[in-house]
Amino acid sequence: MRRVKFKVVKVDYEGNRWSVYAKGKYCIMYSKNTIVRAIKGTLGVAVFETRYQAEMFMREFFFSASNKKVIRVVPVGRGNNVAELSQFITSDSLDCFYERKNVDTTKPPSGTMFYPAVEVIE
């Protein structure tokens, strides 16, 4: 049985749930009862091993948690750890990161895993 993981999303005024860390063309919508695939050429869909890790990420990295939510997802495919992420979340910064150009990087938050896709169950 696949183990449930946790994803932090931002919720817009219509109730749609979106990637919290990526903006522009890298931002993905997470609708309930769907399988969401990572954008081709990226690290994958980032999730946390525990709800606690997801909540700590939300508290530490965002000024306001008012439009953020932790949802449950089930990974699809094989998980992957990475050593570094782009420090900035704009499309331009992420383009540079994926093209291996000069860009500031940071370590992923504790408990972060990347999967090719996730099934959104909540």
What does this 3D model show about the protein?
The chain has 122 residues and is an alpha+beta fold. The protein has one domain. Helices cover 16% and strands 31% of the residues. It is built from two helices and nine strands; from the N terminus they run E-E-E-E-H-E-E-H-E-E-E. The strands form three sheets. It has a five-stranded antiparallel sheet, with helices on one face. Strand 1 and strand 2 form a beta hairpin. The chain starts with a strand and ends with a strand.
Q: Quick one: overall form?
A: globular
Number of strands: 9
Largest sheet: 5 strands, antiparallel
Radius of gyration (CA) equals: 14 Å
Helical stretch count? 2
Uncertain regions spanning at least 5 consecutive residues:
none
What series of H and E elements makes up the topology? Answer: EEEEHEEHEEE
Strand order within the widest beta sheet = 2-1-5-9-3
Q: DSSP strand (E) fraction?
A: 25-35%
Find the structural class using helix and strand composition: alpha+beta
State the distance separating the first and last CA atoms.
Answer: 17 Å
Give the tally of structural domains: 1
Mean pLDDT: 90
Helix content class: 10-25%
